[in-house]
Amino acid sequence: MSRLKVTDHIADFLHSSGVRQVFELSGGMITALLDSLCVRRQVQVVSVHHEQAAAFAADACGRMTGVPGVAMATSGPGATNLLTGIGSCYFDSSPAVFITGQVNRDEQKGERAIRQLGFQETDIVAMAAPITKRAVRIRTPEEVPSALRNAFTEAVAGRPGPVLLDIPMDVQRAMIEVDPYEEAPENNAPTVDLEPLLKAVASAKRPMILAGGGVRAGRAAEAFRRVVDALGIPVVHSLMGSDVLPFAHPCRVGMIGTYGNRWANIALMKSDVLIVIGSRLDVRQTGSRTDMFAQDRTIFHIDCEPGEINNRVKNCEAILSEVRPFLEQLCGAVADKCPAGRYDAWFGEIAALHGEWPDTAELPGAPGINPNEFMHRLSRSSDAAAAYVADVGQHQMWAAQSLELGAQQRFLTSGGMGSMGFGLPASIGAALSAKDRPVVMIAGDGGFQCNIQELQTVTRLNLPIKIVILNNQCHGMVRQFQESYFEARYQSTYWGYSAPDFSRVAQAYGLDGITIDDPASVDGAIDWLWRDRTRPQLLQVMVDTFSNSYPKVAFGRAISEMEPSSSPIGMEST
Known about the structure:
Layout: E1 2-5, H1 6-16, E2 21-24, H2 31-40, E3 44-47, H3 51-65, E4 69-73, H4 77-81, H5 83-91, E5 96-102, H6 124-128, E6 134-137, H7 144-156, E7 162-168, H8 169-172, E8 175-178, H9 195-203, E9 207-211, H10 214-217, H11 221-231, E10 235-237, E11 252-255, H12 262-270, E12 273-277, H13 283-286, H14 290-294, E13 298-303, E14 317-320, H15 323-334, H16 344-356, H17 371-380, E15 387-390, H18 394-402, E16 410-412, H19 423-433, E17 439-444, H20 445-448, H21 455-461, E18 465-471, H22 476-485, H23 502-508, E19 512-516, H24 522-529, E20 537-542, E21 552-553, E22 562-563
Parallel strand pairs: 2-3, 2-4, 4-5, 5-7, 6-7, 9-10, 9-12, 10-11, 12-13, 13-14, 15-16, 15-17, 17-18, 18-20, 19-20
Antiparallel strand pairs: 1-8, 21-22
């Protein structure tokens, strides 16, 4: 047993738990934490310029490493600024622990009928509770060791997600007795009955797997690839499952959903047995017509949360299991059971659909640089990248449709929250987790301005982030929505909106930046971007303002019916 100050114990615990960075913006109620981290010098303190950026960076760290990402903020505005990033972790199943400082216990209003007693006193626990796995109000110093252990355990258990600890300043400064502890043994996962699934696959002519973000969240990508190799059936993926199979894998078909590859959506609708692994089957994946999505085929839905199964899409064969144990069991059951060439006709049918609807032909006649062609060209020169980090908007969809991901490359984006401003701070977290390997960050002009201040963090740390901004001088995704539903009245997306010259902004932050607007300049610009893989650089790519993200599911129709070939029946809500 040892006697330590609470903040010293927190610093030691973070280090022993494998945390290598803590992201924060300094404030009065976390100064004791910062001081202990500084004195201990075991964990790198990464100071950003907005707490939301700290949360997004922690999100990326957790996804990249499997160890909960950690972000800290002071009370009041510091804590509330974390909320969007906390919600993004919750919806995208990213393991993270958030530590907020709180005013001294004798300065808290308690049950008094007043709004606030202490300066910046704010009930962050009540605010964060709906978007965390657990939010804990620490009341005594003695609670801290167990609360920390439980937070890190819960953040990665089952479906991963964020946990928040709110610690008053006087608790942080207190002395406590700390007992050594042993890690609890992992529980053995129960086996599931695979016979119905194996029989269905054996009799299917057009089987298909839909891989969601749960494959990565469950740290199950390698097991998934072994299963796919053994089964030898086509795989489509959701936006959050973009990196479960490399682009060159023979079973990979493409992305499905609202902005999915057209050939992938059509192929999914033709399948007769569908195995859904770690996907919520939300409206962005199925479209609004769940009856058309379900049809009369057999759907096996594997998820660790019972509420997600038979939620929107009914009559699925439910397999309640965490993804990795399920896949490991399936690996043993399917080894050497599927003869080569069994689904050649089915793969040939999909290849024909791909040939008929290539992603690079969805914007015929669009002037200037074709975004989908640019993504292919960028990724063919980006083998060195550990990850692609996409912000939110049209560029996000062009990237997911067309990037050629390598076997060891990650694709990170804000899926469920869909928060603009995710890209730059998340790329900081990804770059620090990637151990000197570069990261490609892709953003639009609108989203990039939401956290543009983090260019200073990139410069200060000299992180090898290759920043690519597709600048169409508008909020393109919402402008496209206005084009479809509001007679092209572009209020606040094109009318009343502007963006700077980001290459000049980069130079103000001490980064090299260039701009291109001609397709003939693309090759040279990408070569320039990778001339020195160790340096941060910014490439601004000018894109036509009125280029849309196509294809797009025509709302109210089946996901195989996509704009601009089909027209929406009603107005979507997302």
